[in-house]
Amino acid sequence: MWASERTAVAGPRVVGTASRVLYETLAGVFASLGFDALGDEVFRDLVIARLVEPTSILDTGRVLVDLGVTPASEKTMRRTLLRAQRDGHRDRLAGLCFTHAQASGDVSLCLYDVTTLYFEAENEDDLRKVGYSKERRVDPQIVVGLLVDRYGFPLEIGCYAGNKAETATILPIVRQFKARHGLENLVGDEWSRVLSSRERGHISAQDQRSRWRRATAA
Q: Whole-model pTM?
């Protein structure tokens, strides 16, 4: 065939893309933590989508499609969230986290930190309250407390009214953690307050441990 008679070949056309490797990696981590014991694939996909791109339920399907996964319907997603709350997924996940931390982490020392999450809403309710905000916001907010092992692996989470003092959340979550796992002794430090107090020499480590044990045993 003469060069002049050759037919030009059209360039390649991209018909779709998918971050399948990312999805499979996160699904593998989910399983390695023991969370697949929940036996809830839709819940797993909702967790993965939330990690990749926090968005609304309506938009979660798009995120999963971008990951190369066929998403469940919006109604199924909403039913899954209701079922997760009804069936106590949080309690089961807390147990799985503790099991994983015992096997792969170190629960001899637990640390605690608190943050606030605000809502762009005008009205308060029983949970979303205007309270102290480091960003000086006046929006309703909630207080979230997280207990972790010495390596930062989550063990227990708590949610409190937005006007609750941060220091008033630590003992309830520690008692909840101890009761859940049948623990007697627990040594912990509140990152922002206790550690800074010890650094300034206001209290010794031994005094802090004694105060902590008395408080959590109450």
A: 0.72
Tens-place pLDDT, residues 66-125: 999 999 999 999 999 999 999 999 999 999 999 999 998 788 888 899 999 999 888 899
- 4, part of any domain: no
**Collapsed DSSP state (helix, strand, coil) of residue 72:** coil
Clarify whether residues 110 and 212 are in a common domain: yes
Q: Which domain holds residue 121?
A: 106-217
Q: Residue 127 burial by CB count (10 A; 0-12/13-18/19+): exposed, middle or buried?
A: middle
Q: Whole-angstrom Cα distance, residue 59 to residue 69?
A: 14
Q: Which residue has tokens 């933590």?
A: 33
Could you give the CA distance from residue 97 to residue 69 in angstroms, rounded to a whole number? Answer: 26
Q: Rounded to whole angstroms, how far apart are CA atoms 152 and 40?
A: 26
Q: Give whichever of 9-13, 22-26, 106-110, 124-128 has the largest mean pLDDT.
A: 22-26
Question: How far separated are the first and last CA of the chain, in Å rounded?
Answer: 93
